[in-house]
Structures are given as structure tokens and as C-alpha cells.
Design a protein that fits this description.
This protein is of the alpha+beta class. The chain has 2 domains: 156 residues, NADH Oxidase, CATH 3.40.109.10; 46 residues, no CATH class. 43% of the residues lie in helices and 10% in strands. Strands 1-2-4-3 form a 4-stranded antiparallel sheet. Helix 3 crosses helix 7. The longest helix is centred in the middle third of the chain and has 24 residues. The chain is globular and about 60 Å long. The protein binds flavin mononucleotide. The site of flavin mononucleotide has 11 residues, from strand 3.
Length: 278
């Protein structure tokens, strides 16, 4: 990676903070700043020893109250992988990735521990589901950092939750264990551009939340992003309903995306997995 940290941050945000001396060439910070998702993979296997090492690094992530409420399903069986592809046909690359993992929230173990040790589990409410989800997300993020540091590329797949029931049954997930996201992993098969992000002024607040500048910040972001990753006119979502926009930026695209209800049954699935979401 040739770029310095401030060059990478400029690509991401249009500008860079003044990076403190000594951090410009930090391999760790440059790797984090250079993140991009990969959906095409080289025909090169990921050795088991490497995968185990990445997983061991991933589970070093912080865990709420040290409860360690996450687990990973390493999907290897060809027929099981084929089921993911069959149910998520728009992401056929799931079938081509050398490795496919599913990061899960795992609230079963602590309930079993209560049974084994005696004290009754008294936290049958939304926070238990939420804590396990956060733990799983942190482990997945650590895994992504570890994988990218080792020269691999990945792409999370929340689409596994579209078919949460069928895929959970196929993976044998018991009550109180649920998929948070899949992750396709392999050596990158093609170069990818950095995806620009909203400026920090939109995401970082000092002392009090304040989104009064959102319109101007969105406009700046839409234009900056469009200059790097323009969305082709034929990629505009639902022109029949919303028309063809003369300028189709990120915010127009995302507004149209969430105008379609998605995974409205996930709460029912979570309840079916034994969670009280009250
Ligand atoms: C929780 C989560 C779920 C995601 N699910 C999908 C998915 O189902 N399909 C997909 O193609 N990308 C998925 N992504 C990848 C995002 O689309 C990607 O992170 C985003 O477009 C920004 O691109 P970048 O990661 O290259 O910066 C997911 C990312 C996250 C964090």
C-alpha cells in the first residue's frame, strides 16, 4: 500500500485531519483507513491455519460484561453453501468465496451456564438480544481488520437475515442463537476503490447531538461521492415510482432503497428463537 494515512483519509472524506507525526506510515491505521469490501476472489485457498489465526484474533474483541455472546459458523459443506446461494441469488459470489462464515449472536451459552451453576437467568428482555448482536458485530469487525491485515478481502452479508429461519435451521442454530451477518472471505480478485463516507461533521457531535447542517453536508457528500463512484442512470432504483433523477446521488439512492420494506419478519424470527424483545 503506497498511500500515506492522510492520503487514504482524503480519498475517504475529501479531506484529512492533520495526522499526528509518526502515524502517517502506521501499517495498522493505514490498513483500517484503506478498508474496502471485496466480492470477487482469486482462485487461491485460505489455509486452515490462517483462518484459525484470524478467528483467534477476532474473538479477542471486547465483549459486553465479558459474557462472550457470539459464535461463528464456518460453512464448509457444499450443499449448505449452495443453499445460501439458492436463497440469495443476487449475491452468487457467496458461492465463489473460498471461505464463508456466519457471525451469530449467542445468548444460549449464558442461559446454559445459569442452569449448570444454579442462579436463574433474569434477563429475558431486549437488552440480551442487543448485547449478543453487538458482541457478534464487534467480533466480525475484528475479523475483518485481521483478514485485511493479512492481505485478504471480505464482504459482510446481512442478506442471510432475509431467510433467517431456513438458514438458521440448516445451520442447526438452537434457541437464543441467531445470525447477525455472513462474511465472504478470500484473496481479493480485483482492485476496488475506496468508498467515500459522509464527512465527520455529519457523524461526530461535540457534547450535544446537532444535525442542523445535514442538508448542506449531504449535498457535499453526494457530489463528492458521485465524482468517484457515480451511479449509472440505468441503476436508479424504481424509476417507475420515483422518476429518473437528473442528479442521482447517494442520498437519493438510499432514500429509495429504504422505501421498500425489508426483513419486516426479523422480529418474529427473533421471538421464535426464544427472545423476548420487550
Ligand atoms: C452489517 C453489514 C451487512 C452487509 N451486508 C451486505 C450484503 O448483504 N451484501 C453486500 O453486497 N454487501 C453488504 N455489506 C457491505 C456494504 O455494502 C459495504 O460495507 C458498503 O457498501 C461500504 O463499502 P466498503 O465496505 O467497501 O467501504 C454489508 C456491510 C455490513 C457492515
Amino acid at each position: 500500500m503506497a498511500e500515506t494515512l492522510s492520503e487514504l483519509l482524503r480519498e475517504r472524506y475529501g479531506r484529512s485531519p492533520s495526522v499526528p507525526e509518526g502515524l502517517e506510515s502506521s501499517p495498522e491505521l493505514r490498513a483500517i483507513a484503506a478498508h474496502r469490501s471485496h466480492r470477487r476472489f482469486a482462485d487461491r485457498p485460505v489455509p486452515d491455519a490462517l483462518l484459525d489465526t484470524l478467528l483467534a484474533c477476532a474473538f479477542a474483541a471486547p465483549s459486553k460484561s465479558d459474557l462472550q455472546q457470539s459464535c461463528v459458523i464456518d460453512v464448509r459443506e457444499p450443499s449448505l453453501r449452495a443453499l445460501f446461494v439458492e436463497l440469495i441469488p443476487s449475491m452468487a459470489w457467496i458461492g465463489e468465496a473460498p471461505v464463508f462464515l456466519v457471525f451469530c449472536g449467542e445468548n444460549r451459552r449464558i442461559r446454559r451456564i445459569c442452569e449448570m451453576r444454579g442462579p436463574a437467568f433474569a434477563n429475558d428482555h431486549l437488552d440480551s438480544f442487543f448485547n449478543a448482536s453487538v458482541d457478534a458485530a464487534l467480533v466480525m469487525m475484528s475479523f475483518i481488520h485481521a483478514a485485511e491485515a493479512a492481505g485478504l478481502g471480505c464482504c459482510p452479508v446481512s442478506a442471510v437475515r432475509i431467510h433467517a429461519r431456513r438458514l438458521s435451521d440448516a445451520m442447526g442454530l438452537p434457541a437464543h442463537v441467531f445470525p447477525v451477518a455472513g462474511l465472504a472471505l478470500g484473496y481479493p480478485g480485483q482492485a476496488r476503490k475506496i468508498t467515500p463516507r459522509l464527512g465527520l461533521a455529519a457523524s461526530v457531535h461535540r457534547d450535544r447531538y446537532d444535525d442542523s447542517r445535514l442538508p448542506e453536508l449531504l449535498d457535499e457528500y453526494d457530489r463528492r461521492r458521485d465524482a468517484v463512484l457515480p451511479l449509472a442512470p440505468d441503476k436508479q432504483r424504481r424509476p417507475d415510482q420515483f422518476g429518473v433523477a437528473a442528479f442521482y446521488g447517494w442520498s437519493e439512492d438510499k432514500a429509495r432503497q429504504v422505501a421498500v420494506r425489508e426483513r419486516g419478519d426479523f422480529g418474529a424470527f427473533a421471538r421464535d428463537q426464544g427472545f423476548s424483545l420487550d
